[in-house]
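Exercise 7. Predict the joint structure of the components listed below.
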Amino acid sequence: MFRMLAIVAGLGLALAAPAEAQTPRKGGTIRMTAPYGSSFTSMDIHTTQRAQDEIYAKALHRSLYIWDSAEGKPIPELAKEAVVSGGGLVYTFKLRDDAYFHNGRKMTADDLIWSYNRIMDGTKAYPGARYVRIIEGAAAVEKGQAKEISGLKKIDDFTVEMKLTEKVDPAFYLFTALTSIYPADEAVKDSFIQHPIGLGPFKFVEHVPGSRIVLERWDRFYKPGKPYADKVIVSIMGEAAARDVAFRNKEIDTSVLGPAQYVAYQADPNLKGTIAEVAEVFTRYMGMNPAFKPFADKRVRQAMNYAIDTDLIINKLVKGKAYRATSWLPLTSPAYDKAMKPYAFDPAKAKQLLADAGYPSGFEFEWTTSQNESWGLPIVSAVIPMLDKVGIKVKVKQVEAAVLSEVVRSGDYQAFIYSQQTGPDPQAALKCFHSSTPQSACNYMNFKNAEFDKILDEAGQSDDAAKRTQLLQKANALLYEEAPVWFFNYNKAVMAVQPWLHGIQLNATELTHQNVEDVWVDETSPAK
Amino acid sequence: MPMLSFLIRRLLQTIPTVLAVVALVFVLFSVVPGSIVSSMSDDADPQVELRLKKQLGLDDPVYVRFGAYIAKLATGDFGTSFRTREPVTTMIAKRAWPTLQLVFTAMAFAVLLGVPLGFIAALQPGGLVDTLAMVLAVSGLSIAKFWLGLVLMYLFALKLGWLPSFGYGDGGLKYLILPAVTLGVSPMALFARTTRAAVLEIMTADFVRTARSKGMSETRVVKWHVMRNALVIILTTVGLQFGGLMGQAVVVEKLFSWPGIGSLLVDSVLQRDIPAVQGSILVVVLAFLAINLLIDLLYGVIDPRIRYA
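Solution:
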């Protein structure tokens, strides 16, 4: 199903299909852009969770698994195979014996164990800790109660045994660059942050802070014949309008498009064929605090969903650059239920529900938002008159993005609007609503529902994939009914790709994150 | 000797200014909501967060943190970035040259174009040149830098293909022209207006009338009396504009992917990387003070009547 969705979503790229059939050309330069800010946070990818940084890290580093966009799931990368035992709690990984760091040293099990221990250093708050925490004993290291992760055992130089705390698929946890494997001997040096060394297809050449990072082909990369390109340049371009000019001027090969540019590119016959789009695993929503009396009532929360003309906002304000959310799990989730229908726009029903809940004249609440153009203040501004029509008044509290993330984790809000990663693993996405998940982790609405917990626990214990999916769909449907949030949309990521760039993957976890060893440039590229 | 004592006195005067700025920035970022810890990890263990805050000194009272910061600063240590874990001085050193390149080129463009334009306009007040120059000046002051930058990109990169639209490249002139012109247009317009006003005022001064009545040629009057006196006013404006340019460079650097202190400052503020914010602002302030000190010294060179008293 995922594959089909990705293909449908990527109709734009289909126009370039004849070119894709060509034999990949060796050489040339891939010129990507990093659109989410005016710099990279750090050259130490363990320290940063920004999508911006993972763009370069996908070329420089490698993890135990890697995301396969075509399959819509993570597949082994540094692991050659994994043998599962112990009732699904023990994984024995056979590691590649042909993976060389950019300093020429072969990767061994020691590097993996060292890297995971480093990520769990509780004095550093490395963001990858949330993933490595699935390994038994990792949390103890994080809390300073142990020096090494007890659940990681080196069998030999290329075999590692990993004990998990619960029955989950570690692939979904150990594929991002946040869990990259570092060379233990190099990463302890101060120079590492200036000159990072990884296992990826490209090695570090230079970083001009605030402007670009340059990487060149690593000849000892373990995938035969790859990478194709000689060089990758990632230019930092936070301004959409500047990217637009540079793309049209053929100075860059990829450009993430915002809503306005999406419309403009679709209307331009010269640019329409450059569009690649995919439903990303991010759900945009308005979270409602059950500690705020009106939102404690399910009928009020449902009324919010009925009162807002979500389709109108997506079509007119977001310019169609989003998919209507039906519930929590996104369109590209393996447990997405196609049969589900979103809340209809029905102000009369909303009024009725409000009256039933004891709010016939509505109420007033404070809505905390950032300025984000796709899911922030502009959306709130559009919703206000819709809620007003059913008697609900809104007081807007505008904060910076950094503050918003603190607000949602602390519960210091009546309502907030946010974009949250809801995949790729549906179980992990739904676990955010499990009563055992603290608000500071990802249960931002402090959702507690015994029936939901039971269904999710049952799904976690199930070895039958079909039954598991069915249970996850049931949990997702329960969320729809309980409506802890206004289900707004699933992000449609859109990127313009020059016709000479081939092999771009429709990555639903983040479109800008490309396995660059599979990307190649043909001879028509101005960069040669 | 008077110049040396003036220099020492002025340097001493900068100390309270710098301290005031440092204190202001420190207090401001101590009270604004949001912290680096939340931007580092979405779901860090609360215990880890507390430990990290302790390690970064964020749980100490403001006065303790301020004292520690000043003590470090006195030794030239700007601290370590919360984000990159690099020394802030290293981060700033990497960014200082591109910013200086940008600001000085923009200033050179503004002075070389704005001052002559203002002179020419003032010499023919109400004439065609004056009208055109002032229309240009008013437009230059009114245009938003972001919009102007995009127009220049569109024209000179996309349509004419003469210059790259973004980036630092090898740091060469072709990458510098568009951002520098974008940054320099507004001060250029201001210099044109200031020069025109200064020259018009000086032209009616008694000493100019006296010079003319003594039979001095108009060229000599302008060169020896008008230009010299106007330069003092222009220099003051230039000095003040330097500070403005350092601030406005933030927008231009971000637009053109120029690797300067401005873009460092923006990202550091957004992620609450307090040491990097403090360091960046401090460097901008020091640069502003240094430029203005230099200009104060130049007053005496241009006009010997000005004493270093």
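Discussion. Residues 218-255 of chain B form the longest helix (38 residues).
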